[in-house]
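Regression test case RT-17, inverse folding.

Input:
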């Protein structure tokens, strides 16, 4: 019997206005393989609240889930859900909105796309070991790090990201140079 935790995302039809984010929830389910077929068991809505709850990723030990939530209207922060304790706690709570929490390849930080008050979108690192109110900027001195849409770490020094400019582009950024 093969069992692993997986996410089942459920997006609900939103009755949102233009400036609001969609109503979304995050679900955790057991995926069980038996006789060559997969079955979903024990669905659990880990957010179970009105509002935007999205962009989950597992912790380095698979005992928790990072995600973003708009517990404050039109502003998102990063939270962590403990699978064992079934509790949710903030990782960072800032004036800016954070999106796409992703562990760095060395598991030292969570990198997020941060929408700053001037509407620029940049990458920041957060210490995931303790909650913070201010981010540590990842690439302050590196040009062309604005307008980050989505990203992934290729290795400890290189981030691949989608740049939201005209024309849109896919970029590889060596953060050491």
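Golden output:
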């Amino acid at each position: 019997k093969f069992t692993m935790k997986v996410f089942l995302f459920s997006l609900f039809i939103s009755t949102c206005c233009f400036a609001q984010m969609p109503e979304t929830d995050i679900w955790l389910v057991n995926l069980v393989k038996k006789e060559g077929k997969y079955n979903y068991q024990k669905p659990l809505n880990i957010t179970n609240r009105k509002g935007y709850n999205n962009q989950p990723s597992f912790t380095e030990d698979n005992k928790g889930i990072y995600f973003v939530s708009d517990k404050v209207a039109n502003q998102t922060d990063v939270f962590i859900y403990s699978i064992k304790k079934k509790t949710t706690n903030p990782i960072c709570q800032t004036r800016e909105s954070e999106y796409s929490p992703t562990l760095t390849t060395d598991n030292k930080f969570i990198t997020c796309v941060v929408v700053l008050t001037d509407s620029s979108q940049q990458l920041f690192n957060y210490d995931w070991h303790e909650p913070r109110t201010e981010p540590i900027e990842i690439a302050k001195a590196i040009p062309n790090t604005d307008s980050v849409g989505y990203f992934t770490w290729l290795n400890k020094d290189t981030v691949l990201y989608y740049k939201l400019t005209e024309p849109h582009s896919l970029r590889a950024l060596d953060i050491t140079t």
